[in-house]
Amino acid sequence: MTDRDVLADLVSYIAKETRLLLTDMSPEELAWQPDAQGNSIGVTVWHYSRWLDLLVVRLLENRPAEEEQWHTQGWAANTGYDPRGIGFRGLGAITGYTQQEVAAIPLLSGEDLLTYLDQVCSALRGHLLSMPEGTLSSAARGYPKGTAYQTIMGPVLGSIGHLGEIEALKVLQERARL
C-alpha cells in the first residue's frame, strides 16, 4: 500500500462513517444546534465536504473555484448559494465565517449532504490515486506553505475529527430531548 493509497482510504473512511452517522437523521436533527453559536450536524458535514472539495481544485491544483464540485455538480445553482470570497482566504468553507455567514449556508437534506460528500470524496480519491509517485512531497500549487501531503492532511484529519464532533452532537440532542 502506498502513501496515496492510505490517503485515499482515509477519504473513503470519511464518506463511509458520515453515511453511518447520518442514517435515519431527520431534517430537524440535522439542523439542531447546541446553542446559538454552535454549528449543526448539517453545517458541520457541509463544512468538511467543502474543505475536501476545494482541496484538489484550489489548494493542490490552483484552479478556479468554478471547477469545484459545489459548482460543477450544480449545488451553487440549485441552492442559490455561492461561497466564493467568504471566510478564510475567501475559500468559502466556514473557517473564518461570521455567525451571519454561517446562517446563510443552505440547509441540505441528509441525502443531499451525502451526495455532495460522495461527489467530493470520489473526485479527491481519483486525484490521489492518479498522483505520480513522489508528488506528495512536492509543494502544493495553490498553497505553497507546505507539501501536497501536508496540505492534504489538514482537511482530511480535520474531517475525521468532525466525525467525533457529530457523535457528540447526537448525544447532546438525545440529552436535550430527555
> What is the CATH class name?
Mainly Alpha
Report the portion of residues in β strands: under 5%
Q: How would you describe the shape?
A: globular
CATH topology: Four Helix Bundle (Hemerythrin (Met), subunit A)
H and E order: HHHHHHHEEH
Number of E-type strands? 2
Describe this structure in words.
The chain has 178 residues and is mainly alpha-helical. It has a single domain, classed as Up-down Bundle (Four Helix Bundle (Hemerythrin (Met), subunit A)), CATH 1.20.120.450. The chain is built from 8 helices and 2 strands; from the N terminus they run αααααααββα. Strands 1-2 form a two-stranded antiparallel sheet. It is globular and about 55 Å long. The model has no long low-confidence stretch (mean pLDDT 94).
Task: Give the key terms.
single chain; two-stranded antiparallel sheet; mainly alpha; 8 helices; 178 residues
List the helices and strands and how they pair.
Elements (H helix, E strand, L loop, with lengths): L2 H20 L4 H5 L9 H20 L8 H4 L2 H5 L19 H5 L6 H21 L8 E2 L2 E5 H30 L1
In short:
The protein has 178 residues and is mainly alpha-helical. It has a single domain (3-177), classed as Four Helix Bundle (Hemerythrin (Met), subunit A) (Up-down Bundle). The protein is 62% helix and 4% strand.
